[in-house]
Write a structure and sequence with these properties.
alpha/beta, 9-stranded mixed β-sheet, 4-stranded antiparallel β-sheet, globular
Length: 416
């Protein structure tokens, strides 16, 4: 047993990890079986000899019987039973199976290009072509560069143009919330608008907003650790001077200085406090969630606990607080999740719109062609829902957004 008094022992955790790695190499890679077994056992032997024979025997059994057993499984087996049941309740049997099947496919690597705010269309096209040619990739309809699965490998810090800050890794679905916020202000002078990126780390959406040319971006992140990662990404992309980074609990923070919120709030830019105190014309609220839409990249999220911790409570508190205390009347709030679950996404927005008290909001629906390539994701509410594996090819480009992360985006205007 890998349990001792109800707790896994460190040595047993290592045994479990070795078995998983060895089985994965044996079943899913081109590594020779004898090499996979030997390398795994050698790693274990560095720590303990007591389980070497056991691990060796299990892996050889996997090599002998594993592939035939694998053929008897279904992609649905990768999902926690509660998650599969909830997907069926939310989307029906067919889509639930398609989501499960999509989650076992390798996730594409996509780059968001750091276009200067004042770039002309020709300058944007030239930079996209430059990055695309470098990575032998293709430009997607909404502007991402998709890198071939057989493309550049290794530490991304060694990839071309990384240190120049010309790009950052971001799933195409994850680019939609910031694009939706920018699009809502079409025809307006962005250089006069202050926007807030709530729950901002690691910073892909913040970088997008800063690159669009808004007057200022206030990025709010609860922990200093995640805030440091956000700072690093903004500095690498040369967008740091356009942002204030606030370390605060987003359920209580309001624009202004630390003294106007709570003792745990810090703002790292004293000279931009006046800007951070301006009413927010726009808020991008990408709430903490189950991340079940990112199962290709993070398979562990497909086996998480049904309770989702306190996510639902925090999501509702954030949405209510942003609408009531941060967003200016007439302003735009984009609510988004990387979840495939309605209770974190559609249900939360329905609840927000139906509140008997507090600020009143209305949907600003997505229009066909507004987010190129994502027309098939617009739902009956005018919101945008990406379900992995559940979308047909969109347009002449043959881009199937069902190959990207699962995502939900709703755009709302504060009317009172």
């Amino acid at each position: 047993s890998c349990l001792y008094n109800g707790k896994a022992r460190n040595k047993d955790r290592l045994v479990t990890a070795c078995l998983r790695i060895g089985a994965a190499q044996t079943l899913f890679t081109d590594v020779a079986i004898h090499a996979a077994v030997k390398e795994t056992v050698d790693v274990l032997r560095l720590v303990t000899e007591s389980k070497v024979k056991f691990v060796n025997a299990v892996l050889r059994r996997v090599a002998e019987k594993g592939r035939s057993m694998l053929n008897e499984t279904s992609p649905c087996d990768n999902l926690a039973p509660w998650l599969l049941d909830e997907l069926r309740d939310d989307w029906g049997d067919d889509k639930a199976v398609k989501v499960a099947e999509a989650m076992v496919e390798e996730a594409p690597t996509c780059l968001t290009i750091n276009h200067p705010a004042q770039s002309t269309e020709e300058e944007r096209r030239q930079l996209e072509q430059k990055i695309s040619a470098t990575f032998k990739g293709r430009v997607l309809p909404q502007g991402s560069i998709q890198v071939p699965l057989s493309g550049i490998k290794g530490d991304i810090r060694s990839w071309p143009h990384y240190n120049e800050g010309l790009w950052w890794i971001q799933d195409p679905s994850a680019t939609v919330p910031a694009l939706a916020l920018k699009s809502a202000f079409q025809g307006q002078d962005l250089s006069k608008l202050h926007v807030v990126d709530m729950c901002a780390a690691p910073g892909g959406k913040t970088c997008q907003l800063a690159s669009f040319g808004f007057s200022h971006v206030t990025a709010v992140e609860k922990t200093q650790r995640r805030g440091r990662r956000l700072t690093d990404n903004l500095e690498r992309t040369n967008l740091r001077d356009r942002c204030s980074i606030v370390t605060a609990d987003g359920t209580t923070w309001v624009p202004g200085t630390a003294s106007s919120t709570n003792d745990d709030t810090t703002i790292d830019d004293d000279d931009t406090n006046d800007v951070a105190a301006m009413p927010a014309a726009g808020i991008l609220l990408d709430v903490p969630c189950s991340a079940t839409g990112t199962g290709k990249k993070q398979p562990n999220v497909l086996r998480r606990d049904k309770s989702l911790g306190n996510n639902l409570e925090v999501q509702e508190k954030l949405a209510n607080h942003c609408a009531d205390s941060i967003l200016d009347v007439g302003g735009i709030m984009v609510y988004s999740t990387c979840s495939v679950l309605k209770r974190e996404s559609e249900d939360q927005v329905h609840r927000l719109l139906a509140r008997p008290e507090g600020s009143k909001l209305e949907t600003v629906p997505f229009e066909p062609g507004e987010i190129p390539g994502f027309d098939n994701a617009i739902d009956e509410n005018g919101w945008l829902r990406v379900l992995p594996g559940c979308h047909d090819d969109d347009g002449d480009d043959g881009i199937n957004i069902g190959g990207f992360d699962g995502f939900f985006v709703a755009r709302l205007r504060k009317v009172a």
